[in-house]
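Entry type: protein chain
Record version: 2
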Amino acid sequence: MQKQGGFSLPRRTAEPRERGSAAPAAVGSGAARNGLTVLDDRLLAVRAGEGDDDAFAVLVRRHSGQLLALAHQLLGNRTDAEDAVQDAFLSAWRRLPEFRGDAAFRTWMYRIVTNRCLNTLRGGAPALPLDSVPEPATRNGHNAPERAAVSHAATAALAEALHALPPDQRACWVLRELHGLHYAEIAEVTGTTEQTVRGRLFRARRSLTEEMGPWR
């Protein structure tokens, strides 16, 4: 196994590559030598779908960080997040010949990862650790112990409030507030409509506002 972006992807097991059981794991000298790192996602996906291992490795390197952050924010467990992202890249690797570019590659990957995380959450949502949510900013530069304690407690309260949200609401909130996706993108990722996304976000924000009221 080789490490890529904090998780492992299998080595290629056949030559020439037989799609379905393996995926490239790193951006090697071939990618740099061929100028792949400057190509946009659409062209890289086309080349990867035609069997270019280096092109897919560039996509993995380019998007693994954001996808790991998303999975960690949804699942609250680093190991589970790495497994979800690895499974998502393997699924994408197998399905690349079917990818027509109707949506951006990034959106496509967000959808695969989100679906995997939601399936896990619906089977029993794990508790969110403190490092899976953003820490509230302090009002000034002082780092007094009492202020640090308050900030820590507020972060814990936010983690608990997020954990209490239904998985679909949590996913929409994370995608919007932590990843900055637009409503249309979130609808594409979650397989719903913009109206549904707006409704889930409204309910999630209302619940979080109520739960975080004492910290405002």
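Comment: The first strand starts at residue 2 and ends at 4.
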